[in-house]
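REQUEST FORM: STRUCTURE PREDICTION
Request ID: SP-0412
Submitted by: Lab K.M.
Chain count: 1
Length (residues): 346
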Amino acid sequence: MRLPRRRVTDTSSALSRRTLLAGLAAAPALSAAAAPSAAQTPAARTPAEQAQAALKDSKGTKLVLLGTGAGPGGQGPERTRKMTSHVMLSNGAAYVLDCGVGVIDQYARTGIPFSALRSIFITHHHADHNIECGPLLVVGWINGMHRDVRAFGPPPLKQMTEDFMRAYKTTVDFWAEDLKMKPLVTVDVKEVSAAGLVTQDDNVKVSAVIVEHPPVKPALSYRFDFKDRSIAFSGDTVASEAVAKIAKSADVLVHEAMYVPGIETYIRGEIAKGRPIKFEDLMAHMKADHTPVEDAGRIAQEAGVKTLVLSHLIPAFDNISDDTWRAPAAKYFKGEIIIGKDLMVL
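STATUS: Completed
RESULT:
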């Protein structure tokens, strides 16, 4: 599959400055995505290099797990997973679902050009799902994103986007003046507050249902029906029949997963460090808002999906083995189970 080439309409002098600033904006991603040396074997490739290789000249729709960690907590050297975000690439068009911290760098590391970005979808308004939505728009614009990108998500996404663009108007105007570009002024936002069809274009039909993630209302689960495959996302939710229904017979279900013994150990560790939290209160919140991994397996089996991808892992620590994640889900789900990792291509 050939990725679309970025449109070039600037003058040569403006282009050189734009190239410089765009390179600086994407520097962390570009350095991580450098081509492997001749001495490297495929096994020694970085996750970014593996993702680029998997996407290069690929045929059909691809899903990239940009970030597979849950929540803003637990940030530290023992956690290497970025916050939740995904990108689907079909026919040269990219669709981003959720924008946790890291989505910009992770998107760039895939090698997918920002000019390919067509739409952004938000499941709900927690920071690990939406905090880089505005920055993705501005950084994407400076790196060649088309200005007709659309955004979809629960209210008040329109107000939030307008507020962000208002806050960054000075920044955008400076870049636009210096680089002789048309400024990114507004973004077309469609708010989603009920189940049903969200949008449809020449590549994909997108639908959503409401899920339970108190006190956040509404919180959404999405399904993307491409011409060659269907991909459903649970969003953040307790075990929900709504997810089983929207994911019915899907090729892939990406479902959040909570390993209860792991989160219990994490909370006790935080209390020991002096954090002013109560074990019972926080565990009650986790059980009311999230899906134990065995229930993710049950939902996948009920939906009859081909592949279950466990992501938005709670807790998002690397010292929990894949087998530990897989075993509870496998009690119920008899299909393929994949433990999500950042920059994995499916």
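NOTES: The longest helix spans residues 12-25.
Reviewed by: T.R.
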